[in-house]
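Schema walk-through. Below, the input block comes first and the output block second. Nothing else is stored per chain. Lengths vary across the set, and this one has 148 residues.
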Amino acid sequence: MNPVRMAIVLVGVLGVLVALAWLGFALWPKAASSEAFQPSPVPTFTPRVTARAISAVASLAPTTLPKPVVTAIPTAFGVVTSRTLNLRAEPNLQASLVGTFKFGDIVPLVRRDSSWYQTSEGGWLSALFLEVRQTRAEAESYARELTG
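--- output ---
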């Protein structure tokens, strides 16, 4: 947590604790008094919002969304774990379909973008339906286990 947010939270918590403590003492009847209980008026709290506070909070908000991180990986091999897996032109579900793979197929992978892998041919596959291995031999062994 960054220091500005921590300070804002701390001030808020302290303010609540002070208000609760004051309220508790003000409403507590005096032990030695025989008078009827008369609660003290409850104070009102009006927070002061300054330009400095607004600019501090505004500086915490991101101005743009972060770009997806595309990571180049040394050639790895994905084993398809769904009945069919669509190969897409771009790493998103709205991209055009450029091919399909079937259960147990082994696909060379060259890059990862969030939850997508790029194949050596340039298409993209969802990482949800791939089991990735570092070598072709490991991928073939895993594919044999899958297909029995």
